[in-house]
Automatic annotation (TrEMBL), chains A, B:
Domain 3-dehydroquinate synthase N-terminal: 210-316
Organism of provenance: Mesotoga prima
PROSITE patterns documented for this protein: SHIKIMATE_KINASE
UniProt binding sites for substrate: D32, R56, G78, R131
Recorded family membership: Belongs to the shikimate kinase family.
Pathway: Metabolic intermediate biosynthesis; chorismate biosynthesis; chorismate from D-erythrose 4-phosphate and phosphoenolpyruvate: step 5/7
Catalyses which reaction(s): shikimate + ATP = 3-phosphoshikimate + ADP + H(+)
Protein name per the record: Shikimate kinase
Native organism taxonomy: Bacteria, Thermotogati, Thermotogota, Thermotogae, Kosmotogales
Main localization (coarse): cytoplasm
Gene Ontology molecular function, alphabetical: 3-dehydroquinate synthase activity; ATP binding; magnesium ion binding; shikimate kinase activity
Domain 3-dehydroquinate synthase C-terminal: 323-461
Enzyme Commission code: 2.7.1.71
Length: 495, 495
């Protein structure tokens, strides 16, 4: 498969193309660079010395060669679509137009010496007007208000096949499906996060309700919006409700579907990596109430969960890595895929789609194994709290995301147990190195009094006056137990 | 077993005693009347001609005889507790003091010519002061702010054994237990209706939350009160939550327990007859939202449901009968206990406790059979909508209670189907006579346009423009089917 990026100069074809090629595991080809390399001279010089016509001939020749190659991502020259034959060729390919208003384009290109800009600012507007109609014959992605990752995700979604592998989860079918998100377009009753709606708007049904994602939204005020939406749409108990978003949206929609008219069928599209790994299995949902996180909620199984790794490509740096930490935790607990994860870590950080799909499939399978042994979370499932005891200190005191805090907490807990001799120094080093590669480990020292107070209030503390707390520890990958430790001792590793 | 009612003149011993005796299936004995009968003269004359001492002797003789009889409810003379020996005897019996402030007493007795009141208003206050301490040696029921039925219920609760029969319901244990309500006293986390709290205050734990009952309370504002109560009490997932009240309270508490911390164990004490018959089986709960009844809710099975017929004795006239209509509907659908119900109807109207217990046991068993065949209410269970199609017109248009409306609706639906020849004229007559005995059938003619509009909006209408509706009909007791009928035809029987 080949992907051709087209668009004006400055629309980001090269930058996006390079990221896209590592995401899609394809070779990246910049046509301008390729021509320069073949001719041993710069594009400007070809224009000056041999004229634009000669450049266009070289460009067409190269294009004709490229369509006989496979597994490439190509950044084309801005003028490639001027030629009718070129356009014909590109229409038979995965060609995506990176769309950007000319004012934005001008801002981007003025810093560089580009041949077509010699004529000054007006030229870019003139060229844009000339080429606009030709570009718009191609599928496009609007890039002006998007991050690079969002653009990469939007392009990848366009070309993703939507093929899916259905896992035999113990509770309900879970599909791992790159491009599977597009099927949301056929769903009339959908609640989606505003973020997902913005990036993937072309697949979001116009009847969908979009809501805020994030902790603030996760309460009854948003639930009531969802209920009102369902009432307005006259949703009956045989209609399906769809949720698409991060943990907040899937929790809200999960709760709404379980309680609207005493339960309507539900399809979940978790769209953050954390939600895909963490929330997609087990049917847990939750709402915050009066400042208490998840104090309201229940268990409700979706009819189907669709995990599309392409959606997660759009995530901000940091948020994406939270999901990797969660997955790593699962592999550490089960011991399965642990070594593989460590090897793939670099590729996963680059969001390589094949690695991501494989990793997600493994994480979901293993999360399911843990959860199915303890569906109502009375015992075993608590091992998923790994890293949470100290993580719960970093989260408020260092004001970092939950995922980051858990990563730091996990590193410190392992450090503590290695110091006690409960676990191998080498295992601790391994875990620490991997976490460092995923999120970095520049954690601060915590203020001792606040940390102690928080630790005392931890719900795992044997009693509120107790000097001990019971926490899970992985002794070897795949082998864990729960140990009682003294609060004071544990505290020493974070202050 | 014997019950002795003690208390000042005017405290209602005779009236309450008479009702109580029919409730408890015992002979009623009014000691004053008994003495008058034996002597062939009135108490006043005995006082005048033979003196109070002689009367007290006769009274003590009678008391000594009565404690050798069984199955009696006795209304004692007001002064019986003046004698030490009498008090000793009564302390070994079920003796209940009907307590009332002297001002209320005076108001009640001034209309009658009673011997001790010849001295005027002051005397009653003086007598009350003299006897107060003696009365207060006995268990008492405060009657001044209570209806007769509430007093009867409170007395019956005191003497009820709390023995229970556990039914093998398909989903969870249901106990039929006269006096079983008293066990709520051992439950630290309880939500009770204000009404029940007022009448049975001596058994309500001080830690309980009391909330309003009734449709107005059945929404998120009350749910939030319950959540806050549970958070204040630090309820954990291993603690039990208890609900005690009518359908509103059991629905609210059912929903709260199913959604607090993803589900806590629940014990339900439905306290209205309708809730005992209707809501106690099947785990349904519901909340109103934005004017839509029960649009939010789910299915959640209690660990146990305790059905105490004694609590229902306290119900207002009319409200009690709603429960009888619901039970009758169930017997009509299943055909079981249908004939027995018709025979017992008079006793049930009198709230005879034995009949009520037996009827409740049968209704619960049969409701369970219907529900267990269709737990998520997709088909069969809809037969419970019998009478609801036309009932839903009477409820808003005649502003009567749901139970009354369903009774009228059922009568009219049967009338309609008898007219069509779908059911036997005799079956219709039977049903009509029974409903007439339970609630009366003085239904008004409905305004044709409003009735048609409501009927068209019925969720059972095949589509909103449809001229047809599908409704359940019982062709013979125990034999039902669903029939499509024309809206216009059906309407003719109510306008």
């Amino acid at each position: 498969m080949r992907v051709f990026l087209i668009g004006m100069m400055g629309s980001g074809k090269s930058t996006i193309g390079r990221i896209l090629s590592s995401v899609l595991d394809k070779e990246f080809i910049d046509m301008d660079l390729e021509i320069e390399k073949a001719k041993g001279t710069s594009i400007s010089e070809i224009f000056e010395k041999e004229g634009e016509e000669e450049f266009r001939r070289l460009e067409k020749d190269l294009l004709k060669k490229l369509v006989h190659r496979d597994e490439i991502v190509v950044s084309t020259g801005g003028g490639i679509i001027l030629d009718k034959e070129n356009r014909q060729i590109l229409k038979g390919e995965n060609a995506v137009y990176l769309r950007l208003p000319p004012a934005d384009l001008y801002r981007r290109v003025t810093v560089k010496g580009r041949p077509l800009l010699k004529e000054g600012k007006e030229s870019i507007f003139r060229i844009w007007e000339e080429r606009r109609e030709l570009y718009e014959q191609f599928p496009s992605v609007e890039t002006s208000s998007q991050s690079q990752w969002e653009t990469v995700a939007a392009i990848s979604m366009k070309i993703a096949s939507g093929e899916s592998r259905v896992l035999n989860s113990s509770s309900h079918p879970v599909s791992i499906s790159p491009g599977g998100f597009k099927s949301i377009g056929r769903m009339p009753n959908a609640v989606v996060s505003r973020r997902v709606e913005r990036i993937f708007s072309e697949w979001i049904p116009s009847s969908a309700l979009s809501i805020d994602d994030g902790e603030e939204a996760k309460g009854f005020h948003t639930l009531f919006q969802v209920y009102e939406y369902l009432m307005d749409r006259g949703l009956s108990r045989s209609d399906v409700l769809v949720g698409a978003g991060g943990g907040t949206v899937t929790d809200l929609v999960g709760f709404a579907s379980s309680t609207f008219k005493r339960g309507v069928p539900l399809i979940q599209y978790p769209t953050t990596l954390l939600a895909q790994v963490d929330a997609s299995i087990g049917g847990k949902n939750g709402l915050n109430f009066k400042g208490c996180k998840n104090v309201v909620g229940n268990f409700y199984m979706p009819s189907e969960t669709i995990i599309d790794p392409v959606v997660t490509l759009s995530m901000d740096e940091g948020r994406f890595e939270e999901g990797l930490v969660e997955a790593f935790k699962i592999f550490l607990i089960t011991g399965q895929y642990y070594e593989k994860f460590k090897k793939l870590c670099g590729k996963l950080k680059e969001r390589n789609l094949a690695a991501l799909s494989e990793m997600l499939e493994e994480a979901v399978k293993q999360k399911d194994r843990i959860v199915s042994m303890d569906i109502r979370e009375t015992g075993l499932r608590k091992v998923l709290n790994l890293g949470h005891t100290l993580g719960h200190l970093y989260e408020p005191l260092s004001r970092v995301s939950h995922g980051m805090a858990v990563a730091w907490g996990l590193e410190r807990e392992m450090h503590y147990f290695a110091g006690l001799g409960v676990i191998d120094e080498q295992l601790y080093r391994d875990v620490s190195d991997t976490l460092s590669e995923i999120v970095g480990l520049d954690f601060p020292q915590l203020p001792v009094e606040e940390a102690l107070r928080l630790l005392r209030n931890d719900k795992k503390a044997v009693d509120s006056e107790s000097a001990e707390i019971e926490i899970p520890v992985v002794k070897r990958p795949g082998e864990f137990e729960f140990l009682k430790v003294r609060l004071d001792d544990l505290l020493a590793v974070v202050v």
